[in-house]
């Protein structure tokens, strides 16, 4: 049996399509578990689920995030395998059959995943493997540098293996799947994929992954957890340290863009100088000099470019929490000064 676990939070407009896609699978032995994670749109969610209630296992719980919701579903599952599906994604009717073909053909596999179709405004625009080509072998080292990347809604995993690994870390709201797959692979789980795209993933502004700055912050937390909890080799520890440093720099650049959007040139200049001193990038050097000698012109050019190029993450206000929590620990005092204008 395959137990399908669907965490549901603010996905009422899409949940019926997600659930229906699990109930119409050609693979004969599936159960569907929907975990309502204290969703604020519960009345609409339950109305959308009403036609399916006699064919699904519906669980309600207090809001705890996607990790907690998936863990609740895993513990309630009866299947030997767990298939994950986000509430705003859906499958083709042969998705589970193709995944199970891989698993049954090789009993040593613990997890399989596949390509997926990315949707924007309900229209397919590319495949995830086109955006992120996969390396031939799925290993811890390949996953950590993202030569391989496992889409949550494409994955089918041995229930025994994921329970043995300790389930999802409920302190993560984002990147929880990235951390879970890394932990499983490090401790020896065998992972494979196929290139057919039988999964449809919506890319929209209200999804958790749409906030790229928050995603990067949690990715740094994943790197820090790996370094603190796993017996890494010196080479692995060095690679993860570099990834963490690069991601911190990217976070600072994102914050710099927010400050430019807000026309906060004083704080942008201080931050640009700090980031440039660490990174020695010609782009950051240009930004630092532009903010130093012609801040309004530089800010205006940035905003023009932002209107032309589609933004990478939703526009959010710049607040002290963002400035402090994203930065390196040794810069905390300086960033407190930036956020208060000292």
Descriptors:
342 residues; Spore Coat Polysaccharide Biosynthesis Protein SpsA, Chain A; alpha/beta; 2 domains
Question: How would you explain this protein's 3D organization?
Answer:
This protein is of the alpha/beta class and 342 residues long. The protein folds into two domains: 209 residues, Spore Coat Polysaccharide Biosynthesis Protein SpsA, Chain A (Alpha-Beta Complex); 118 residues, no CATH class. 50% of the residues lie in helices and 16% in strands. The chain has 15 helices and nine strands. Strands 1, 2, 3, 4, 5, 6, 7, 8 and 9 form a nine-stranded mixed beta sheet that branches. Helix 14 packs antiparallel against helix 15. The C terminus is likely disordered.
Termini, distance in Å? 61 Å
| Sequence stretches where pLDDT stays below 50 over 5 or more residues | 311-342
The third-level CATH topology of the largest domain is Spore Coat Polysaccharide Biosynthesis Protein SpsA, Chain A
Proportion in helices: 40-55%
How do the SSEs run, as a string of H and E? EHEHEHEEHEEHHEHHEHHHHHHH
CATH architecture of the largest domain: Alpha-Beta Complex
User: Which structural class best describes the helix and strand composition?
Assistant: alpha/beta
What fraction of the residues are assigned to beta strands by DSSP? Answer: 15-25%
Q: Mean of residue pLDDT?
A: 86
Output the number of helix runs. Answer: 15
Radius of gyration: 22 Å
Assigned CATH superfamily of the largest domain: Spore Coat Polysaccharide Biosynthesis Protein SpsA, Chain A
Which of globular, elongated, flat, extended, rod-shaped describes the shape?
globular
Query: What is the number of independent domains?
Result: 2
Q: How would you sum up the major sheet?
A: 9 strands, mixed
């Amino acid at each position: 049996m395959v137990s399908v676990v669907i965490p549901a939070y603010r996905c009422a407009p899409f949940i019926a399509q997600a659930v229906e896609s699990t109930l119409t699978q050609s693979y004969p032995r599936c159960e569907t578990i929907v975990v309502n994670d204290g969703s604020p749109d519960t009345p609409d969610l339950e109305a959308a689920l009403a036609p399916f209630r006699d064919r699904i296992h519906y669980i309600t719980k207090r809001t705890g995030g996607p990790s907690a919701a998936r863990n609740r579903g895993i513990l309630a599952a009866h299947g030997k395998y767990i298939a994950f599906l986000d509430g705003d994604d859906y499958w083709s009717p042969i998705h589970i059959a193709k995944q199970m073909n891989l698993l049954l053909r090789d009993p040593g596999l613990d997890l399989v995943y596949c390509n997926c179709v990315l949707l924007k405004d309900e229209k397919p625009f590319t495949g995830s493997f086109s955006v992120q080509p996969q390396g031939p072998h799925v290993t811890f080292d390949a996953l950590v540098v993202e030569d391989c990347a496992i889409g949550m809604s494409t994955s089918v995993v041995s229930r025994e293996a994921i329970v043995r690994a300790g389930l999802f870390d409920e302190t993560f709201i984002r990147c929880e799947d990235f951390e879970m797959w890394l932990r499983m692979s490090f401790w020896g789980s065998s992972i494979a994929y196929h290139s057919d795209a039988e999964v449809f993933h919506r890319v929209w502004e209200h999804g958790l992954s749409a906030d790229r700055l928050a995603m990067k912050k949690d990715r740094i937390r994943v790197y820090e957890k790996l370094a603190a909890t796993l017996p890494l080799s010196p080479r692995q520890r060095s690679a993860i340290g570099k990834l963490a440093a690069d991601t911190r720099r990217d976070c600072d650049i994102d914050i710099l863009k927010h400050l430019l959007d807000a026309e906060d040139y004083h704080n942008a200049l201080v931050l640009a100088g700090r980031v440039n001193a660490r990174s020695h990038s010609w782009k950051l050097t240009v930004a630092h000099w532009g903010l130093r000698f012609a801040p309004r012109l530089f800010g205006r050019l940035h905003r023009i470019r932002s209107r032309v190029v589609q933004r990478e993450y939703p526009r959010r206000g710049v607040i002290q929490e963002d400035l402090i929590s994203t930065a390196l620990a040794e810069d905390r005092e300086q960033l407190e000064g930036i956020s208060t204008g000292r």
